[in-house]
Amino acid sequence: MDSDAGSASSRSSSPDIAAVEGAVGGYFPSKMFQGYFQDGRPDPGALQPRKECSMAGRPKAKTREELTKEDLQDLRLKVNSRERKRMHDLNQAMDGLREVMPYAQGPSVRKLSKISTLLLARNYILMLSSSLDEMKKLVGEVYGNGGGGNQGHIPRRAPVAQVTTPQLPLHPLAQSLHSLMGATPPAPPTAPSAPASLSPPSAPGFLAFHSPLQGLLKDPLHLSSSFRHFPGMPCPCSLCQPLAAPTPSLHSLAMAWPDATLFAPYCATGPFSDHQSSANLRVSKMKGTRGHTVTRSRGPHSHSGAVVSPERPGRHRTIAAWRRTIGIGPGPSCL
DNA sequence: TAGGCCATCTGGTCCT
DNA sequence: AGGACCAGATGGCCTA
Question: I need a labelling partner for A230 at 20 to 30 A (CA). Which of A84, A145, A259, A293 fits?
């Protein structure tokens, strides 16, 4: 019944999950890849002694033809176990990616599907890249033509949101930037900003989320104290209510729904272009059905049993259904 | 009930 | 030879 006979396999194709999780915030640091190469990859040196030992203490290994039915079964179980572990590691890496994605996370939120995670990650990277380029342009325009020897350094340490005060004529890009920054009200001088644990460590400041307190105050549904608020992400709080027409500006990047920005390429060309599941964002209110680790047998060959605790997906709700539930308007046409 | 998503098994291929 | 990787097949769970 136990198909996990090979669980003690010393080889792994995946990064050491403990090493990855031990990294700050579970983010994707170089540590991850260090862990991958140092801990996850096969270590010939570590294997060598065992091999020698086994060779010394045992008769010559059987050839394929010499393997008995039991031997073949054991081999098959070992292979199955390795494959299972490989897929589990892959899923854990996928979870690590989900953790840093700009999308609501919490016990009451359905996690992104694999394909959605990958597509969102891709578009998120593209969005950050374009935002960074725009930021560079903006900084260059603001400080590059001052001519008064101010080039090359920021004249004051105030946040950008304070730089763009009403007294100053705002460059259109600066206005967009201000809109972005304005999504997060200035914190009191002594009050700490949003906990770092709630922000992707590498996300630029202008992409930071609303503070948890603000989200709680603005969130009429009180979805969850751990509900993350991201600019541009589907969020029931009043700040995120306006639906902006999808334009390439920073402002729209901040205010548009993810399916209009991060998911736009997918909506246009992906398999979800037909109906409500376009964004394939699942939201669940079913506590207890998500994130649980259960043991069950599945698949046509589950005769071997002991299928290793796969994570069971909870109830699925498309983002369209989620919108209906929380009473916000329809999204872009792709939905 | 259909479709989407998922986990698992399995056999083949490639690499060390 | 053994392991990693891959893709196909299969069946379960869930939502619309």
Answer: A293
